[in-house]
Amino acid sequence: MSNDFYNVLWVNKSASESEIKKAYRKKAMEFHPDRNKGDSTAESKFKEVNQAYDTLSDKNKKKQYDMFGSAWWAWWNPFGGSGWWSYSSSWYWGFEDMFWGAWWGNTQSSSFNFEDLFWWGGWMWWSSRRTQTRQKPKEPENLDFEKTYEVPIFDLILGCKIEVKWVYWNTAKLKIPASTKSWSKFRVKWFGKKEPGREGNLIVKVEWLMPKHISEVDMSMLERIRENIGY
Questions:
Q1: In degrees rounded to 5, what are phi and psi of residue 179?
Q2: Which of 20, 35, 141, 206 is 20 to 30 A away from residue 174, measured at CA?
Q3: What is the H or E stretch that residue 150 is in?
């Protein structure tokens, strides 16, 4: 596969953006897979044409290519190889969509250029193929489940045990140590969601529950405790 992109498009190194675009359209139409079904040579040429245009139509890529030539292309294209660029008609829009796209791109003029149909279809195939190839693998779902429990403030101060429920309604006792702060979190292993081969955890977040009523006697006792307690 040729790395001389100017030669692939038959343009000079000093060619303008419009000249590069015009040359690309001509070559893409000539070697488009729909016009050369079963022709592996044309398919290879079509890939070369798209690679050349993708680089030369981008100012930054073109600058790097002009400086380093094929050495830069070999570095920038880590996915190189015929397997990555294998052709399938299912990777771009249908014929009706290509026609619509080409027509839409020409709404400023009164005529329809058949050449645009192949240019648009080729570009959509190229863009769609590159996008699909570079998709990141889907991350596995987080199976942990978080739930907030209100715990009386004195239980958090003195320590206690609370009953927690599993996602699937099983229950367990969770020990809350003394002097636990509000919004602290505890992990209960294997009490989260499940899927084949994987189990999540239940994340328990405790929040203090203030008393609704305190008697005068208890209030006086708390006053004395406040005076003597250290922080």
A1: 65, 30
A2: 141
A3: strand 145-152
pLDDT (tens digit, 9 = 90+) per residue, 166-218?
777 788 899 999 999 999 999 998 888 888 888 899 999 999 999 989 999 99
Residue 169 belongs to domain spanning = 145-212
Tokens of residue 95, six digits: 């014929």
User: Tokens at residue 16, please?
Assistant: 């303008």
Residues in the chain: 231
**Beta strands 202-209 and 198-199: pairing type?**
unpaired
What DSSP state is assigned to residue 31?
A: H
Token code pair at residue 45: 């040429």
Question: Quick check: 22 and 49 in contact, CB under 8 A?
Answer: no
Q: Are 202 and 145 in contact (CB under 8 A)?
A: yes
Q: pLDDT tens digits for 99-123?
A: 444 444 444 444 445 455 455 555 5
pTM of the predicted protein model: 0.41
d(C-alpha 197, C-alpha 224), whole Å: 56
109 and 150 share a domain? no
CA distance 120 to 137: 29
Report the CATH number that the domain containing residue 30 is assigned in CATH: 1.10.287.110
